[in-house]
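# nightly structure sweep
# worker-07 picked up a monomer target from the shared queue
# config: single-sequence mode, recycle default, output format = structure tokens
# input follows
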Amino acid sequence: MITLATASAHAVEHFTGSVSWVSDGDTLWVQPDSGGAPRRLRIDGIDAPEICQAGGPASRDALARRAMHQRVVVAVRREDDYGRGLARIRIDDQDLGAQMVREGQAWSYRWRHSTGPYAAEETAARRVRRGVFAADQPELPRDFRQRHGPCPAPGR
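# output follows
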């Protein structure tokens, strides 16, 4: 099922499917129930460690454990600069982005002066030093990318 809905002049694409691949802590592929090629999606509202950054493999593995082969409901807001659909994803009516941040496997995505949509989940994970927040000063993925450039592209 694919539907388009308008909300404040922005089209949102909704579909259901199954997760067929996880490449890092915020990127996965979903095979739509309606058929066609798997869709490469980035979880909207989070920023997971780069795969070559400390915590990157653990973040990818956490997402794979939670999402691989699971049925999902997807709401794609737009495409990012890398051609991935920027999407909110739900598994068993649970927000996957919120789960990743709550588990300390990603940051709430910051934009300008905003602490992002999952700031409360990040604060809770920091308080108990869960996941990437166990480190004294975990490095934001965007700062890591600025210092080191992108990691080599994962397979798929």
